[in-house]
């Protein structure tokens, strides 16, 4: 299905490190790239390096005073609570600007490759820092690389960009940047803000012309409910919106093993999401797909497998879920973490789901969440909110 796929990587991306004990440990992306390499997935893609985003590029989204303040923290390592650096979520560290700017540069490199036609799909698994605000760090995120990439695409002439965020946490930073810009459709599927950070992402947050879309799912939602909600909301909106580019944030913290949230997906359910987004990129966005990583805090059993499946799907060579994880990779996991690695690329789930078009159950909390979203935004797009 894919003509060309680029994976953007630089070993310096692991320098985005908030220190021992912080959930966003860079070993997760190190193990992802190692697993993709050892399974031969990286042989099917082009790999390319990147350079840090410059201040003018960061300023497409972030206030220049904020960038200057991050640079000051970066130079000294001293906290600046006025910009959100120095908290438990966002510890200050020397070099933070350089590390965050490199992640943004990697996502920009992916966007440039896709917009120029050098690649049909491009990925930055170290990216997806969707909570950063124009003038503040938030939720482990210093610079908002997906938002910067979207703003850059608009500056290059993209008329419409769709952003789909499947992280368990609401993509609040990206929504905030484009809330009043009808050229950008932001769709976030996340655990209900009543039970999870950042406390936003209700269906009534519809933005300009219904282009902010939020599916707030109840804690405990598993593969069947999550996929039912995804297919009830995302494909109809993308088909109507017809973006020039699809940008996605592929946080895998919706997994049942993730320690920071309460959804119950499997790696198999997440893999089905990648299949759907890949197909939708071809159907609705001329094949142009920019994908980033995101959240994911089960560092060994979830993140590497999920994002290796993502890269393989984007490459048009999806992995058999029953594929064994290579011994070389399992040895690396033991050396780097001391944890027991998973033996295969599946959780043993079928990840089937009932189609919402077959009927709505008002007693089901997932169906109520679907209906709330469809009622809030579908009429803006000329779509029938009823199943």
From TrEMBL:
Keyword set includes Nucleotide-binding: no
Domain Histone deacetylase: residue ranges: 22-312
A Pfam family matched in the record: Hist_deacetyl
A GO term, aspect molecular function: histone deacetylase activity
Domain of life per record: Bacteria
A GO biological process held by the record: epigenetic regulation of gene expression
Record keywords: Acetoin catabolism
Keyword Metal-binding: no
Pathway: Ketone degradation; acetoin degradation
Family according to the record: Belongs to the histone deacetylase family.
Name of the featured protein: Acetoin utilization protein AcuC
Originating organism: Sphaerisporangium rubeum
